[in-house]
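User: Sequence recovery, please. Input:
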């Protein structure tokens, strides 16, 4: 209502004001939804991390990271570059970790000594070391949202972030002081500016190179994606110059790819120099001599010698034969289809459907087709290489799949047919997102042993998979509580697979493999990964015992009379 004598606002101006107010409210609503999804992810990770004992790899990374910061020494855990371990070590130091510099031992011993034998509060240090990875996981959620919003709009960004935030694998491994989620997240962070370089090459090419360098400086398994990313940078710059009519687009693309590669190499060097500016290095005992094309390629890499020796260690691991377990079958070696099969078990059913629909949308829709190589090629190459690996030990080796395909799935929100939006497509997409959220929430707080409803949920995962898919040593604290509450005073025999120290958690147990079988009576407590390995020393004991309880869907309690 206007005052007497004041002219009324023109209709066009009034409409524009209402439109601006609506846009402002929509921005606030979008920000609130994004914040809520990230808050859910943060709560799920933090509460899970607080309840879990160390997984097998964590003490190694924590001990190495603290040594990097306190002693400026690269000798521990050379098979992985130092960047994320520096952050993990910083979290541990801020959590009060004290390092006994006089202690000598291998990297497993050093990590165990740091947590349990140096006067530290092991769980406090462990949780503090996990915090930097949780923070990175949340930041990568913003990358997922931003990338998907660039491609599909705000609704697609929210859908992608929801899939990421409710992914049981992202929650499980994003809450641990490990390297899998950071490596995948840094790689996605490099792909996003590579895509945006089509519009702003001068700003985005260096960012793509820096993020790629961070990925390589976290985990060597991303190396196969490096030429893919550099090719994508070249294509983006070529397209940018060609669309503006600028000269020599091919040459500019190649130069930009070289510049991004140089930035990535510099980032890797910077990570090593941050630990030891003098880069003192003596190859540890046991670094294998790698010949053939692998050895030649390793020697030609433009990275520090500790990186190249670490890659030789990784090749040595690949040359070993590991025990696998898939769909109830224990085997020695590897199976090429292991990772796709494991992803089928451990991915929510709604997420699997959205991945398939999202990939199809990116291939079929003209609006999304230019982005398809950026979103799909890096995970496809990494998955193809990982499927040739010899370590069938968990979907964490393919954690980049849920990270990248969350972005691809956003394409379902913009499906159109002959210019008319399929009315059912967006609704179906959101129903599937809700299905994913419900499946994830039902699994709380057992995200590490998650499997979807078709395979019985977390309680059934140990029947199909083992190791970091279900039992990675994470439930010593829960086991201690269970034994104290339900089985006080009973004799306990423990076959535990993990890096924790049972006695620290108040578990008083004997080793069933250290005595004749006829002396084992009472409670036989066995990590499910031990059961999956079908150890001939342990299998007769299990066969003659009665299962009476389980802990965390990762440990089975038997009674042996």
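Assistant: Recovered sequence (561 residues):
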């Amino acid at each position: 209502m206007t005052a007497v004598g004041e002219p009324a606002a023109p209709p066009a101006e009034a409409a524009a004001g209402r439109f601006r107010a609506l846009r402002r409210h929509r921005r606030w609503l979008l920000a609130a939804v994004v914040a809520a999804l990230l808050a859910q992810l943060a709560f799920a990770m933090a509460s899970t991390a607080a309840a879990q004992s160390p997984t097998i790899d964590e003490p190694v990374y924590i001990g190495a990271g603290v040594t990097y910061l306190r002693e400026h020494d690269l000798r521990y855990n050379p098979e992985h570059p130092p960047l994320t371990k520096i952050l993990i070590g910083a979290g541990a130091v801020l959590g009060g970790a004290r390092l006994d510099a006089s202690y000598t031992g291998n990297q497993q011993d050093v990590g165990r000594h740091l947590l349990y034998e140096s006067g530290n509060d092991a769980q406090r240090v462990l949780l503090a070391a996990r915090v930097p990875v949780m923070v990175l996981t949340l930041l990568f959620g913003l990358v997922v949202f931003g990338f998907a919003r660039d491609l599909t709009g705000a609704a697609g960004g929210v859908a992608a972030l929801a899939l990421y935030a409710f992914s049981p694998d992202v929650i499980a491994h994003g809450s641990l002081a490990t390297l899998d989620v950071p490596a995948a997240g840094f790689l996605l962070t490099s792909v996003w500016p590579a895509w945006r370089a089509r519009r702003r090459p001068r700003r985005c090419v260096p960012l793509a190179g820096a993020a790629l360098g961070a990925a390589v400086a976290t985990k060597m398994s991303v190396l196969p994606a490096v030429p893919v990313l550099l090719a994508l940078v070249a294509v983006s710059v070529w397209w940018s110059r060609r669309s503006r009519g600028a000269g020599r687009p091919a040459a500019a693309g190649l130069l930009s790819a070289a510049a991004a590669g140089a930035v990535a190499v510099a980032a890797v060097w910077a990570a090593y120099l941050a630990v030891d500016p003098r880069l003192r290095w003596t190859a540890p005992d046991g670094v294998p001599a790698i010949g053939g094309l692998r050895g030649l390629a390793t020697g030609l890499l433009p990275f520090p010698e500790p990186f190249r020796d670490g890659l030789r260690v990784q090749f040595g691991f690949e040359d070993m034969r590991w025990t696998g377990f898939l769909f109830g079958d224990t085997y020695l070696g590897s199976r090429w289809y292991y990772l796709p099969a494991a992803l089928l078990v451990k991915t929510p059913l709604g997420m699997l459907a959205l991945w398939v629909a999202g990939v199809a949308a990116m291939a079929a829709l003209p609006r999304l087709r230019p982005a398809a190589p950026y979103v799909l090629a890096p995970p496809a190459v990494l998955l193809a290489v990982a499927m040739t690996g010899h370590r069938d030990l968990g979907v964490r080796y393919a954690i980049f799949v849920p990270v990248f395909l969350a972005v691809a799935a956003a394409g379902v929100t913009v499906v159109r047919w002959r210019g008319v939006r399929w009315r059912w497509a967006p609704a179906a997409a959101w129903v599937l997102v809700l299905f994913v959220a419900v499946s994830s929430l039902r699994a709380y707080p057992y995200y590490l042993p998650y499997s979807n409803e078709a395979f019985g949920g977390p309680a059934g995962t140990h029947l199909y998979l083992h190791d970091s898919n279900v039992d990675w040593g994470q439930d010593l604290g829960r086991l201690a509580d269970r034994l104290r509450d339900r089985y006080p005073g009973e004799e306990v025999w423990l076959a535990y697979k993990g890096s924790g120290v049972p006695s620290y958690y108040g578990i008083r147990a004997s080793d069933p493999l250290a005595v004749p079988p006829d002396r084992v009576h009472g409670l036989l407590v066995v990590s499910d990964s031990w059961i999956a390995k079908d150890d001939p020393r342990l299998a007769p004991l299990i066969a003659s015992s009665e299962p009476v309880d389980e802990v965390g869907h990762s440990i089975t309690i038997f009674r042996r009379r």
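Residues 11-51 form the longest helix (41 residues).
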